[in-house]
Design brief:
The protein contains 11 helices and 12 strands. With 322 residues, it is of the alpha/beta class. A 7-stranded parallel β-sheet has the order 8-7-6-9-10-11-12. Strands 2-1-3-4-5 form a 5-stranded parallel β-sheet. Helix 10 links the parallel strand 11 and strand 12.
Length: 322
């Protein structure tokens, strides 16, 4: 019997997905709702999913399933324990957005630090045209040079962000642990100083989150942590929604407790039923629709690695396993 591969949400990946080199059956859907999963995977050997959850209850009804190939790095949508119990291999994508995501991080940082959107809105509103002088100075502009970047999650992406920060002349610190909520990061080979999360929050001018979503990291940044930050500090989250208490952040931004925030993720995506950060209509908050990972180059690298993972599994050499 030929291996049957089913891609549940093909429309989430804007790249060419080559077919595996071994003989197989291939079926793909643009999108799949949770109630459609079992029927669509009834006789599948391998499932590809980006954001469609695979639960323990689903797995009990899918005896033919041998592999879950994630078209993403995060795996919180998969019941990993249930997969291990049923000997279902789970593979994810790694190190594919090492350029795309760090560049997006700095796009958000620069837009906020240099008030790009505020000045753009002013020009559109005709304020520069009415100014008495050659320039219109209404929003404070801060340099990145000699400011401190605090990195929470100093893995591959965190280190890539640090490389860019050095080019701007920033001083870089990384959290050695996350207030005992998660274990310390693996030691790196560079000389970045590791400090406690609380100290990082107190001393950094820009803070970037680069950690996975888990029960231990949910609401890692909440009202008490926001209260530690400088009134001019920026909080950048291109990792996962839910790492930050969004209601607490909206209040901190409204009250000027911190300088601004740039997010690419929310707890619920898309935010069809509202969100405190969107409803507040905050001028010091920038949100992009989960696209930090999605340069054309990064998506093609992801697509190629996805099929590499499937081919390795079929050849008895499973890789990138969770």
């Amino acid at each position: 019997m030929l291996p049957k591969i089913v891609f549940l949400d093909r429309d989430t990946l804007d790249a060419k997905v080559r077919r595996p080199s071994f003989t197989h059956d291939w079926l793909e859907y643009g999108a799949t709702t949770p109630d459609q999963v079992v029927d669509r995977l009834r006789d599948a050997t391998i499932v590809i999913t980006n954001k469609v959850p695979i639960t323990a209850q689903m797995l009990t009804q899918l005896p033919s399933l041998k592999m879950i190939a994630l078209a993403a790095t995060g795996y919180n949508i998969i019941d990993i324990v249930a997969c291990h119990e049923r000997s279902v291999v789970v593979s994810n994508i790694r190190h594919y957005a090492n350029a795309s995501l760090p560049e997006h991080v700095f796009a958000l940082i620069l837009a906020l630090r240099r008030q790009i959107l505020s000045y753009h809105r002013d020009v559109q509103a005709g304020k520069w045209q009415q100014a008495k002088h050659f320039c219109f100075l209404h929003h404070p502009i801060l340099d990145l040079a000699n400011s401190q970047l605090g990195i929470i999650g100093y893995g591959t992406l965190g280190q890539s962000i640090a490389k860019i920060a050095r080019g701007f002349g920033m001083h870089i610190k990384a959290a050695v642990s996350l207030s005992d909520k998660v274990s310390a990061e693996n030691p790196s080979t560079d000389d970045i100083e590791r400090i406690s999360l609380d100290e990082l929050l107190r001393t950094s001018d820009v803070i970037t989150l680069n950690i996975p979503m888990s029960a231990q990291t949910r609401n890692l940044i909440d009202a008490p942590q926001l209260a530690l930050m400088k009134p001019t500090a920026l909080l950048i989250n291109t990792a996962r929604g839910g790492l930050v208490n969004e209601a607490a952040l909206a209040q901190a931004l409204r009250e000027g407790q911190i300088g601004g925030a740039g997010f690419d993720v929310l707890t619920v995506e898309p935010p069809t039923k509202g969100n405190p950060l969107l409803e507040a209509n905050l001028p010091n908050f920038i949100l992009t629709p989960h696209i930090a990972w999605a340069s054309q180059g990064a998506m093609q690298t992801l697509a190629d690695q996805l099929i590499d993972n499937i081919e390795a599994f079929v050849n008895g050499q499973a890789r990138n396993t969770i």
